[in-house]
Amino acid sequence: MKQKEKGLNTICTHEGALEDKEFKGSVSPLYMGTSYAFEDVDLKRYPRYFNTPNQEGLSRKIAALEHAESALIFGSGMAAISTSLLAFLRAGDHVVLQNMLYGGTHNLVSEQFEKYGISYSFTTGLEPSDFEAKIKPNTRVIYIETPSNPLLTITDLSAISDICRRHGIVSMIDNTFASPVNQNPIDHGIDVVIHSATKYMGGHSDICAGAVASTKENMERIFQLARGLGGSLSDYTVWLLERSMKTMGIRVKAQNANAQRMAEALMQHPEVEAVYYPGLPSHPGHALAKKQMKGFGGMLSFELKEGLDASSFQKSLKIIKPSMSLAGVESTILSPALTSHSLLSAEERAAFGIKDGLIRFSLGIEEIEDLIADMDQALTKTKKEAVSTAHS
Ligand SMILES: *Cc1c(COP(=O)(O)O)cnc(C)c1O
């Protein structure tokens, strides 16, 4: 009988754990050393070579979670993203990316790539044909993000992977919003899977880290650049991240359930204009999300009714906190127009589909009744303020 692959929570809890041979403790020992005996060239251990015991252990867990042969852990999501892109792109190459992208990635490409002689095209549409139309003879990479930030649009993983295979192009995904709990892109043919581990992997808003998972061959190529760029993660943080990831499965499933309930409640709310959540049958990407995701995720966004002020809405919330980041066990919201997209003009934002009343919502693990009540009181208060301003 073929051994069955271990299930999600078993991998989260045990995979890659280091054995405490000396004291038989049940937790991985932490090896902070930067100096190891020189055995032979392949075995030389050093934090920036991504091969200390704790780094190797946690990499095995992440590879198992993403159904990948191999993985590396980085000092941030952006270190993982920049290293992966640059490992596959050289002067004269071209990359196709979706326009609806994490802001840091968008900036990296549009502000830095030209000086390395790398050209790029952004697609506004998310149909596979929109990506294929941008391919040139020198295109080496297609880079996607699904579900996307902040409107939770869905891109078709297997269609993108088919296009890439036909054209001999490497496919890369930022899988941060889904987490490995909800989506395993490698099962759909995607080559390189990237995470900001600062988000669901860490899950407690206290760790900054990144991760990449792929085949041994691709990871060797990424490693060759990674050790030169030097974006490794401290072993202490690696150890903390291992602890956090033991509960990732149960955290994310609770966040999925809360997001679904919240999306349904907001759909019914008179002060809400629109709700964007892939778990809603009305979402344009719902059928696709159902096909390629195992859960719809803990992120949603919604639009306040015309005339309601996003800023005073944020101030009225009592449990849910305004915050730049996401994916922690605590619920947080963000107004893209006031924060991440504030440097764009209203017209530019509109081109992205981001209205001034749009709110991005990262669901935590609190009791959903408390969160719905908090939303309701804040929406009602904001509505009253809008009415009294209009009458004064
Ligand atoms: C936060 C985030 C990143 C960047 O990760 P850092 O850990 O902040 O460097 C990249 N992609 C997505 C989707 C993110 O949410």
From TrEMBL:
Superkingdom classification of source: Bacteria
Alphabetized UniProt keyword annotations: Aminotransferase, Pyridoxal phosphate, Transferase
GO MF, any single term: pyridoxal phosphate binding
Names of required cofactors: pyridoxal 5'-phosphate
UniProt modified residues of type N6-(pyridoxal phosphate)lysine: K199
Listed GO biological process terms: methionine biosynthetic process; transsulfuration
InterPro entries, A to Z: Cys/Met-Metab_PyrdxlP-dep_enz (IPR000277), Cys_met_metab_PP (IPR054542), PyrdxlP-dep_Trfase (IPR015424), PyrdxlP-dep_Trfase_major (IPR015421), PyrdxlP-dep_Trfase_small (IPR015422)
GO CC terms in record: cytoplasm
Similarity comment: Belongs to the trans-sulfuration enzymes family.
UniProt name for this protein: Aminotransferase class I/II-fold pyridoxal phosphate-dependent enzyme
Species in which this protein is naturally found: Poritiphilus flavus
